[in-house]
Amino acid sequence: MPYVKPNTFVDGQTLDASDLNGNDEALKDYINEGVVSADFDDNLMGTEEIQLGDYQPITNEYTFASGIACGYSTSKQESDRSYWTNTIKKGRLNDNNLKIWQSNYQTSPSIYLEDTADLIITFGGSCPSFEQTVATKGFWDSTLKLGYRKDEDDLLTFVEQSRAYAFEETVPTSAGPSGNNNPFGLIGKPSVTSYEVNEIKFGLRRWIGWTVILKGLTAGNYKFSVYVDPKTEEGCWTARTFKAEVFYR
Amino acid sequence: MAIVNNNFFEDGDIPTAAELNQPYDSAATQTGVLDPANTADNWITIAHIDNTATGVCNKLFDFVYDGTAQFITNSTSYVTVNSTGIQPSECILGYQPERDEVCRIECSGLITNVDVENNYDSTAVPPNGDRNYYAFQLLLTYDDGAGPLTLVIGEWGYSFTSMAGGTSRYWTTNDGLPENTGVGLGFQTFQFSKMLKYNGVTGIRTYTKVELQAKVNYAPNTLKVSRNNIIAVRAMR
User: What integer pLDDT is reported at residue A10 of this predicted model?
Assistant: First the structure.
Protein backbone atom coordinates (compact mmCIF):
# COMPACT_ATOMS: atom_id res chain seq x y z
CA MET A 1 0.00 0.00 0.00
CA PRO A 2 1.15 3.59 -0.49
CA TYR A 3 2.93 5.60 2.16
CA VAL A 4 0.75 6.73 5.08
CA LYS A 5 2.00 9.57 7.22
CA PRO A 6 1.63 8.71 10.91
CA ASN A 7 1.40 12.29 12.21
CA THR A 8 -0.54 15.34 11.03
CA PHE A 9 0.51 18.83 12.00
CA VAL A 10 -2.01 21.41 13.17
CA ASP A 11 -1.64 25.20 13.14
CA GLY A 12 -1.01 26.79 16.52
CA GLN A 13 0.48 23.71 18.16
CA THR A 14 4.05 23.42 19.21
CA LEU A 15 5.98 21.26 16.76
CA ASP A 16 6.87 17.96 18.38
CA ALA A 17 10.22 16.69 17.09
CA SER A 18 9.11 13.09 17.46
CA ASP A 19 6.13 13.73 15.17
CA LEU A 20 8.37 15.17 12.50
CA ASN A 21 10.93 12.41 12.89
CA GLY A 22 8.16 9.82 12.92
CA ASN A 23 6.90 10.95 9.54
CA ASP A 24 10.41 10.88 8.12
CA GLU A 25 11.07 7.44 9.59
CA ALA A 26 7.88 6.06 8.10
CA LEU A 27 8.75 7.53 4.73
CA LYS A 28 12.24 6.07 4.91
CA ASP A 29 10.88 2.65 5.78
CA TYR A 30 8.42 2.80 2.91
CA ILE A 31 11.01 3.82 0.36
CA ASN A 32 13.57 1.31 1.58
CA GLU A 33 11.44 -1.75 2.01
CA GLY A 34 7.75 -0.95 1.97
CA VAL A 35 6.99 -0.85 -1.75
CA VAL A 36 4.99 -3.95 -2.64
CA SER A 37 3.52 -5.29 -5.86
CA ALA A 38 0.08 -3.91 -5.00
CA ASP A 39 1.52 -0.41 -5.28
CA PHE A 40 1.86 -0.95 -9.03
CA ASP A 41 -1.18 -1.05 -11.23
CA ASP A 42 -1.84 -4.05 -13.47
CA ASN A 43 -0.33 -3.82 -16.97
CA LEU A 44 2.02 -1.11 -15.80
CA MET A 45 5.42 -2.62 -16.43
CA GLY A 46 6.92 -3.37 -19.81
CA THR A 47 9.42 -6.07 -20.59
CA GLU A 48 12.21 -3.51 -20.36
CA GLU A 49 11.72 -3.62 -16.61
CA ILE A 50 12.69 -7.30 -16.44
CA GLN A 51 16.27 -8.17 -15.72
CA LEU A 52 18.14 -8.97 -18.90
CA GLY A 53 20.49 -11.38 -17.24
CA ASP A 54 24.23 -11.21 -16.96
CA TYR A 55 26.59 -12.91 -19.35
CA GLN A 56 30.08 -13.74 -18.15
CA PRO A 57 32.15 -14.30 -21.30
CA ILE A 58 35.22 -15.57 -19.49
CA THR A 59 33.43 -18.44 -17.81
CA ASN A 60 30.63 -18.66 -20.37
CA GLU A 61 28.01 -18.31 -17.69
CA TYR A 62 24.67 -16.59 -17.90
CA THR A 63 22.29 -15.48 -15.19
CA PHE A 64 18.65 -15.77 -16.12
CA ALA A 65 15.43 -14.15 -15.12
CA SER A 66 12.32 -16.15 -15.88
CA GLY A 67 11.61 -16.61 -19.54
CA ILE A 68 14.84 -15.13 -20.78
CA ALA A 69 16.80 -17.25 -23.23
CA CYS A 70 20.48 -17.74 -23.79
CA GLY A 71 21.30 -18.63 -27.35
CA TYR A 72 24.22 -19.64 -29.51
CA SER A 73 24.26 -19.61 -33.26
CA THR A 74 27.08 -20.05 -35.68
CA SER A 75 27.75 -20.46 -39.35
CA LYS A 76 28.62 -23.53 -41.35
CA GLN A 77 32.22 -22.45 -41.73
CA GLU A 78 34.60 -25.35 -41.37
CA SER A 79 36.63 -23.27 -38.96
CA ASP A 80 33.65 -23.37 -36.61
CA ARG A 81 33.59 -27.13 -36.46
CA SER A 82 34.02 -29.01 -33.24
CA TYR A 83 35.71 -32.33 -33.96
CA TRP A 84 35.44 -35.72 -32.35
CA THR A 85 37.32 -38.97 -32.78
CA ASN A 86 36.95 -42.58 -31.75
CA THR A 87 40.70 -43.11 -31.55
CA ILE A 88 40.61 -42.57 -27.81
CA LYS A 89 38.94 -45.98 -27.62
CA LYS A 90 42.26 -47.69 -27.99
CA GLY A 91 41.91 -51.01 -29.78
CA ARG A 92 38.11 -50.84 -29.62
CA LEU A 93 37.42 -47.97 -31.98
CA ASN A 94 34.06 -49.19 -33.27
CA ASP A 95 32.89 -50.96 -30.16
CA ASN A 96 29.10 -51.10 -30.04
CA ASN A 97 29.09 -51.20 -26.26
CA LEU A 98 32.06 -49.17 -25.02
CA LYS A 99 30.83 -45.62 -24.66
CA ILE A 100 33.22 -42.73 -24.31
CA TRP A 101 31.33 -39.46 -24.44
CA GLN A 102 32.91 -36.37 -25.90
CA SER A 103 31.34 -32.96 -25.57
CA ASN A 104 30.77 -30.25 -28.12
CA TYR A 105 32.22 -27.03 -26.75
CA GLN A 106 29.73 -25.04 -28.81
CA THR A 107 26.93 -26.42 -26.70
CA SER A 108 28.40 -26.24 -23.23
CA PRO A 109 26.90 -23.42 -21.24
CA SER A 110 27.06 -23.26 -17.48
CA ILE A 111 23.69 -22.34 -16.10
CA TYR A 112 23.12 -21.32 -12.54
CA LEU A 113 19.54 -21.85 -11.44
CA GLU A 114 18.56 -19.63 -8.57
CA ASP A 115 15.46 -21.69 -7.86
CA THR A 116 13.64 -24.79 -9.07
CA ALA A 117 12.99 -24.38 -12.77
CA ASP A 118 11.96 -26.05 -16.00
CA LEU A 119 14.34 -25.79 -18.94
CA ILE A 120 13.66 -25.97 -22.64
CA ILE A 121 16.78 -26.66 -24.67
CA THR A 122 16.83 -26.53 -28.46
CA PHE A 123 19.63 -27.86 -30.63
CA GLY A 124 20.08 -27.85 -34.36
CA GLY A 125 23.10 -28.62 -36.43
CA SER A 126 24.94 -30.73 -38.90
CA CYS A 127 27.06 -33.65 -37.72
CA PRO A 128 29.20 -35.14 -40.50
CA SER A 129 30.80 -38.45 -39.59
CA PHE A 130 33.55 -38.96 -42.13
CA GLU A 131 34.63 -42.12 -43.89
CA GLN A 132 37.05 -44.30 -42.00
CA THR A 133 40.60 -44.46 -43.26
CA VAL A 134 42.00 -47.10 -40.91
CA ALA A 135 39.21 -48.86 -39.08
CA THR A 136 36.53 -51.00 -40.67
CA LYS A 137 34.15 -49.12 -42.90
CA GLY A 138 30.47 -49.74 -42.46
CA PHE A 139 28.09 -46.86 -41.79
CA TRP A 140 28.94 -46.90 -38.11
CA ASP A 141 26.47 -45.09 -35.92
CA SER A 142 27.72 -42.46 -33.50
CA THR A 143 25.16 -41.62 -30.83
CA LEU A 144 24.48 -38.02 -29.87
CA LYS A 145 22.71 -36.97 -26.70
CA LEU A 146 22.30 -33.98 -24.47
CA GLY A 147 23.88 -34.51 -21.09
CA TYR A 148 24.42 -32.46 -18.00
CA ARG A 149 26.11 -32.41 -14.64
CA LYS A 150 24.94 -30.61 -11.54
CA ASP A 151 27.28 -29.00 -9.06
CA GLU A 152 30.16 -31.26 -8.11
CA ASP A 153 28.35 -34.41 -9.19
CA ASP A 154 30.65 -36.23 -11.62
CA LEU A 155 27.92 -38.39 -13.11
CA LEU A 156 26.49 -37.33 -16.43
CA THR A 157 22.73 -37.39 -16.77
CA PHE A 158 21.73 -38.09 -20.36
CA VAL A 159 18.49 -36.84 -21.81
CA GLU A 160 16.92 -39.55 -23.93
CA GLN A 161 14.56 -37.03 -25.50
CA SER A 162 17.58 -35.84 -27.48
CA ARG A 163 18.83 -39.19 -28.77
CA ALA A 164 20.11 -38.87 -32.34
CA TYR A 165 22.64 -40.50 -34.63
CA ALA A 166 25.38 -39.58 -37.09
CA PHE A 167 26.44 -42.25 -39.57
CA GLU A 168 29.76 -42.90 -41.24
CA GLU A 169 29.80 -41.47 -44.75
CA THR A 170 31.45 -44.40 -46.41
CA VAL A 171 31.17 -45.53 -49.99
CA PRO A 172 28.29 -47.99 -50.37
CA THR A 173 30.39 -51.07 -50.98
CA SER A 174 30.39 -52.54 -47.52
CA ALA A 175 28.21 -55.35 -46.34
CA GLY A 176 25.89 -52.94 -44.64
CA PRO A 177 25.61 -51.03 -41.39
CA SER A 178 27.96 -52.23 -38.73
CA GLY A 179 26.56 -50.31 -35.79
CA ASN A 180 23.42 -50.90 -33.79
CA ASN A 181 21.18 -48.99 -36.15
CA ASN A 182 20.61 -49.13 -39.87
CA PRO A 183 20.52 -45.69 -41.46
CA PHE A 184 18.87 -47.10 -44.55
CA GLY A 185 15.90 -48.72 -42.91
CA LEU A 186 14.75 -52.15 -43.91
CA ILE A 187 16.28 -51.73 -47.36
CA GLY A 188 19.61 -52.49 -45.79
CA LYS A 189 22.68 -51.31 -47.59
CA PRO A 190 22.15 -49.19 -50.65
CA SER A 191 23.21 -50.50 -54.01
CA VAL A 192 26.28 -49.10 -55.68
CA THR A 193 26.14 -46.49 -58.36
CA SER A 194 28.28 -43.51 -58.99
CA TYR A 195 25.33 -41.22 -58.40
CA GLU A 196 24.54 -42.63 -55.05
CA VAL A 197 27.80 -41.91 -53.31
CA ASN A 198 27.20 -38.21 -53.06
CA GLU A 199 23.49 -38.62 -52.43
CA ILE A 200 24.17 -40.87 -49.49
CA LYS A 201 26.74 -38.52 -48.07
CA PHE A 202 24.50 -35.52 -48.36
CA GLY A 203 21.61 -37.50 -46.99
CA LEU A 204 23.56 -38.58 -43.97
CA ARG A 205 24.27 -34.95 -43.27
CA ARG A 206 20.62 -34.21 -42.80
CA TRP A 207 19.92 -31.63 -40.12
CA ILE A 208 19.85 -33.03 -36.62
CA GLY A 209 17.54 -31.11 -34.36
CA TRP A 210 15.56 -31.55 -31.20
CA THR A 211 13.85 -29.68 -28.45
CA VAL A 212 13.75 -31.15 -24.96
CA ILE A 213 12.11 -30.16 -21.73
CA LEU A 214 13.74 -30.77 -18.38
CA LYS A 215 11.31 -30.39 -15.54
CA GLY A 216 11.88 -29.50 -11.93
CA LEU A 217 15.62 -28.99 -11.95
CA THR A 218 16.54 -27.82 -8.48
CA ALA A 219 18.67 -24.78 -7.73
CA GLY A 220 22.35 -25.10 -8.45
CA ASN A 221 25.07 -24.99 -11.07
CA TYR A 222 24.50 -27.00 -14.24
CA LYS A 223 26.90 -27.75 -17.05
CA PHE A 224 25.13 -28.76 -20.23
CA SER A 225 26.59 -30.15 -23.41
CA VAL A 226 25.69 -32.23 -26.43
CA TYR A 227 27.80 -35.38 -26.27
CA VAL A 228 28.82 -37.96 -28.85
CA ASP A 229 29.85 -41.56 -28.46
CA PRO A 230 32.00 -41.68 -31.60
CA LYS A 231 32.53 -44.72 -33.80
CA THR A 232 34.45 -43.05 -36.59
CA GLU A 233 37.96 -41.74 -36.58
CA GLU A 234 36.82 -38.29 -37.51
CA GLY A 235 33.55 -36.47 -37.20
CA CYS A 236 32.46 -33.01 -36.31
CA TRP A 237 29.64 -30.74 -35.28
CA THR A 238 28.63 -27.33 -36.21
CA ALA A 239 25.98 -26.44 -33.70
CA ARG A 240 24.08 -23.90 -35.77
CA THR A 241 21.67 -23.36 -32.92
CA PHE A 242 21.85 -24.10 -29.24
CA LYS A 243 19.38 -22.34 -27.02
CA ALA A 244 18.49 -22.75 -23.39
CA GLU A 245 15.42 -21.19 -21.84
CA VAL A 246 14.79 -21.12 -18.12
CA PHE A 247 11.29 -21.05 -16.67
CA TYR A 248 11.32 -20.62 -12.94
CA ARG A 249 8.40 -22.24 -11.22
CA MET B 1 5.33 9.69 -12.15
CA ALA B 2 5.60 10.22 -8.42
CA ILE B 3 7.04 13.65 -7.66
CA VAL B 4 7.06 14.50 -3.97
CA ASN B 5 7.08 18.23 -3.38
CA ASN B 6 8.89 19.80 -0.48
CA ASN B 7 9.03 23.25 1.12
CA PHE B 8 12.21 25.11 1.88
CA PHE B 9 12.42 27.41 4.84
CA GLU B 10 14.76 30.19 5.72
CA ASP B 11 15.99 31.12 9.12
CA GLY B 12 13.25 32.81 11.11
CA ASP B 13 10.39 31.41 9.07
CA ILE B 14 7.40 30.14 10.99
CA PRO B 15 6.07 27.15 9.06
CA THR B 16 2.38 26.58 8.81
CA ALA B 17 0.85 23.21 9.46
CA ALA B 18 0.01 22.94 5.76
CA GLU B 19 3.62 23.52 4.84
CA LEU B 20 4.78 20.88 7.30
CA ASN B 21 2.17 18.39 6.18
CA GLN B 22 2.70 19.03 2.48
CA PRO B 23 5.68 16.73 1.70
CA TYR B 24 4.14 13.86 3.64
CA ASP B 25 0.73 14.29 2.05
CA SER B 26 2.42 14.52 -1.32
CA ALA B 27 4.35 11.32 -0.64
CA ALA B 28 1.15 9.56 0.44
CA THR B 29 -0.62 10.62 -2.73
CA GLN B 30 2.16 10.02 -5.22
CA THR B 31 3.23 6.64 -3.89
CA GLY B 32 -0.26 5.46 -4.76
CA VAL B 33 0.43 6.06 -8.44
CA LEU B 34 3.89 4.62 -8.90
CA ASP B 35 4.85 3.88 -12.48
CA PRO B 36 7.96 2.74 -14.41
CA ALA B 37 9.39 6.25 -14.19
CA ASN B 38 9.96 5.51 -10.52
CA THR B 39 11.93 2.34 -11.21
CA ALA B 40 15.20 1.49 -12.89
CA ASP B 41 15.27 -0.54 -16.08
CA ASN B 42 15.84 -4.29 -15.56
CA TRP B 43 14.85 -4.02 -11.92
CA ILE B 44 12.49 -7.00 -11.95
CA THR B 45 14.42 -10.14 -11.08
CA ILE B 46 13.23 -13.61 -10.23
CA ALA B 47 12.93 -12.47 -6.62
CA HIS B 48 10.16 -10.07 -7.60
CA ILE B 49 8.07 -12.50 -9.59
CA ASP B 50 5.13 -14.15 -7.90
CA ASN B 51 5.70 -17.89 -8.07
CA THR B 52 2.14 -18.90 -7.27
CA ALA B 53 0.02 -20.51 -9.95
CA THR B 54 -1.69 -17.23 -10.81
CA GLY B 55 1.46 -15.18 -10.85
CA VAL B 56 3.90 -17.06 -13.03
CA CYS B 57 4.88 -15.48 -16.34
CA ASN B 58 4.66 -18.68 -18.35
CA LYS B 59 3.06 -22.02 -17.93
CA LEU B 60 4.50 -25.13 -19.54
CA PHE B 61 2.66 -28.20 -20.76
CA ASP B 62 4.34 -31.23 -22.21
CA PHE B 63 4.16 -34.75 -23.51
CA VAL B 64 7.39 -36.74 -23.46
CA TYR B 65 8.10 -40.21 -24.72
CA ASP B 66 11.83 -40.90 -24.59
CA GLY B 67 11.86 -44.67 -24.95
CA THR B 68 12.76 -46.87 -27.92
CA ALA B 69 9.40 -48.38 -28.85
CA GLN B 70 8.21 -47.56 -32.35
CA PHE B 71 4.99 -46.20 -33.73
CA ILE B 72 4.50 -47.80 -37.15
CA THR B 73 2.16 -46.49 -39.80
CA ASN B 74 1.35 -46.91 -43.47
CA SER B 75 -1.61 -44.56 -43.26
CA THR B 76 -1.99 -41.98 -45.99
CA SER B 77 -4.20 -39.87 -43.73
CA TYR B 78 -3.05 -38.41 -40.45
CA VAL B 79 -3.09 -40.68 -37.41
CA THR B 80 -1.95 -39.81 -33.91
CA VAL B 81 1.51 -41.04 -33.04
CA ASN B 82 1.44 -43.65 -30.30
CA SER B 83 4.86 -45.19 -29.81
CA THR B 84 3.95 -47.21 -26.74
CA GLY B 85 0.54 -48.28 -28.02
CA ILE B 86 -1.07 -47.17 -24.78
CA GLN B 87 -0.16 -43.50 -24.51
CA PRO B 88 -0.80 -41.40 -27.63
CA SER B 89 1.36 -38.35 -28.23
CA GLU B 90 -0.99 -35.80 -26.73
CA CYS B 91 -0.07 -32.71 -24.79
CA ILE B 92 -3.00 -31.95 -22.48
CA LEU B 93 -3.64 -28.20 -22.16
CA GLY B 94 -7.00 -27.69 -20.43
CA TYR B 95 -7.10 -23.92 -20.12
CA GLN B 96 -9.01 -20.95 -21.48
CA PRO B 97 -6.79 -18.50 -23.33
CA GLU B 98 -7.35 -14.78 -23.02
CA ARG B 99 -7.82 -12.60 -26.07
CA ASP B 100 -4.56 -12.13 -27.99
CA GLU B 101 -2.83 -14.71 -25.84
CA VAL B 102 -0.04 -16.64 -27.51
CA CYS B 103 0.88 -20.28 -27.11
CA ARG B 104 4.13 -21.58 -28.51
CA ILE B 105 4.34 -25.25 -29.39
CA GLU B 106 7.55 -27.19 -29.93
CA CYS B 107 7.78 -30.74 -31.18
CA SER B 108 10.63 -33.08 -32.00
CA GLY B 109 11.32 -36.76 -32.38
CA LEU B 110 13.26 -39.54 -34.04
CA ILE B 111 12.21 -41.77 -36.90
CA THR B 112 13.75 -45.21 -36.85
CA ASN B 113 14.02 -48.22 -39.11
CA VAL B 114 11.82 -47.02 -41.94
CA ASP B 115 10.74 -49.40 -44.69
CA VAL B 116 10.93 -47.59 -48.01
CA GLU B 117 9.48 -49.85 -50.66
CA ASN B 118 9.23 -47.04 -53.14
CA ASN B 119 12.05 -44.59 -52.82
CA TYR B 120 11.68 -42.52 -55.93
CA ASP B 121 10.20 -39.10 -55.74
CA SER B 122 7.42 -39.39 -58.23
CA THR B 123 6.11 -41.25 -61.20
CA ALA B 124 7.19 -40.27 -64.66
CA VAL B 125 3.90 -38.88 -65.84
CA PRO B 126 1.33 -36.65 -64.15
CA PRO B 127 -0.02 -36.87 -61.62
CA ASN B 128 3.50 -37.39 -60.51
CA GLY B 129 2.68 -37.72 -56.86
CA ASP B 130 5.11 -37.40 -54.02
CA ARG B 131 5.54 -40.95 -52.91
CA ASN B 132 8.79 -40.23 -51.21
CA TYR B 133 7.27 -38.14 -48.46
CA TYR B 134 6.04 -38.51 -44.96
CA ALA B 135 4.57 -35.70 -42.94
CA PHE B 136 3.63 -34.60 -39.46
CA GLN B 137 0.98 -32.26 -38.20
CA LEU B 138 0.13 -30.74 -34.86
CA LEU B 139 -3.61 -30.90 -34.25
CA LEU B 140 -5.28 -28.70 -31.64
CA THR B 141 -8.53 -29.87 -30.06
CA TYR B 142 -10.58 -27.05 -28.56
CA ASP B 143 -14.09 -26.42 -27.31
CA ASP B 144 -16.14 -23.24 -27.69
CA GLY B 145 -18.97 -24.67 -25.62
CA ALA B 146 -20.59 -26.83 -28.28
CA GLY B 147 -18.31 -29.83 -28.23
CA PRO B 148 -14.78 -30.58 -29.40
CA LEU B 149 -13.45 -29.05 -32.61
CA THR B 150 -10.03 -29.35 -34.19
CA LEU B 151 -7.58 -26.98 -35.80
CA VAL B 152 -4.43 -27.89 -37.71
CA ILE B 153 -1.69 -25.80 -36.17
CA GLY B 154 0.83 -26.71 -38.83
CA GLU B 155 2.16 -29.40 -41.16
CA TRP B 156 5.75 -30.38 -41.82
CA GLY B 157 6.97 -32.74 -44.55
CA TYR B 158 10.09 -34.85 -44.94
CA SER B 159 11.45 -37.09 -47.67
CA PHE B 160 12.20 -40.74 -46.98
CA THR B 161 15.33 -40.56 -49.06
CA SER B 162 18.36 -38.40 -49.36
CA MET B 163 16.82 -36.63 -52.33
CA ALA B 164 14.35 -33.81 -52.29
CA GLY B 165 11.05 -34.02 -54.12
CA GLY B 166 10.02 -32.85 -57.53
CA THR B 167 9.39 -34.48 -60.88
CA SER B 168 12.90 -34.34 -62.24
CA ARG B 169 14.08 -37.44 -60.39
CA TYR B 170 11.96 -40.46 -61.05
CA TRP B 171 12.31 -44.08 -61.93
CA THR B 172 11.86 -45.23 -65.49
CA THR B 173 13.45 -47.99 -67.46
CA ASN B 174 14.95 -45.46 -69.82
CA ASP B 175 16.22 -42.88 -67.42
CA GLY B 176 18.52 -44.29 -64.87
CA LEU B 177 17.94 -46.81 -62.15
CA PRO B 178 15.69 -46.62 -59.13
CA GLU B 179 18.65 -46.30 -56.83
CA ASN B 180 19.59 -43.12 -58.60
CA THR B 181 16.78 -41.42 -56.82
CA GLY B 182 18.43 -41.76 -53.46
CA VAL B 183 18.30 -44.17 -50.58
CA GLY B 184 15.89 -44.45 -47.75
CA LEU B 185 17.15 -42.80 -44.59
CA GLY B 186 16.31 -44.03 -41.13
CA PHE B 187 17.21 -42.73 -37.69
CA GLN B 188 16.75 -39.11 -38.63
CA THR B 189 15.37 -36.43 -36.35
CA PHE B 190 12.38 -34.20 -36.95
CA GLN B 191 11.79 -30.90 -35.23
CA PHE B 192 9.33 -28.05 -35.70
CA SER B 193 7.45 -25.38 -33.82
CA LYS B 194 4.57 -22.98 -34.31
CA MET B 195 2.90 -20.07 -32.58
CA LEU B 196 -0.81 -20.20 -31.82
CA LYS B 197 -2.62 -16.94 -31.14
CA TYR B 198 -6.18 -16.69 -29.86
CA ASN B 199 -8.09 -13.73 -31.23
CA GLY B 200 -11.50 -14.48 -29.73
CA VAL B 201 -13.20 -13.32 -26.58
CA THR B 202 -11.66 -14.27 -23.26
CA GLY B 203 -13.41 -17.11 -21.49
CA ILE B 204 -15.11 -18.63 -24.54
CA ARG B 205 -12.59 -21.12 -25.86
CA THR B 206 -10.97 -23.96 -24.00
CA TYR B 207 -7.79 -25.49 -25.39
CA THR B 208 -8.08 -29.21 -24.74
CA LYS B 209 -4.96 -30.81 -26.19
CA VAL B 210 -2.37 -30.84 -28.96
CA GLU B 211 -1.65 -34.09 -30.78
CA LEU B 212 1.29 -35.14 -32.94
CA GLN B 213 0.03 -36.91 -36.04
CA ALA B 214 1.85 -38.55 -38.93
CA LYS B 215 1.16 -40.00 -42.35
CA VAL B 216 2.94 -41.30 -45.42
CA ASN B 217 2.16 -40.21 -48.95
CA TYR B 218 2.36 -43.71 -50.36
CA ALA B 219 0.97 -46.66 -48.43
CA PRO B 220 3.67 -49.25 -49.26
CA ASN B 221 6.19 -47.06 -47.49
CA THR B 222 6.33 -47.49 -43.73
CA LEU B 223 7.09 -44.74 -41.26
CA LYS B 224 8.35 -45.60 -37.80
CA VAL B 225 8.55 -43.04 -35.02
CA SER B 226 10.37 -43.62 -31.76
CA ARG B 227 11.00 -40.95 -29.14
CA ASN B 228 8.94 -37.81 -29.53
CA ASN B 229 7.80 -34.90 -27.45
CA ILE B 230 5.42 -31.96 -27.52
CA ILE B 231 6.08 -28.85 -25.45
CA ALA B 232 3.61 -25.98 -25.14
CA VAL B 233 4.54 -22.65 -23.61
CA ARG B 234 1.59 -20.53 -22.56
CA ALA B 235 2.60 -16.89 -22.31
CA MET B 236 0.51 -15.68 -19.40
CA ARG B 237 -0.36 -12.15 -18.51
Answer: 92
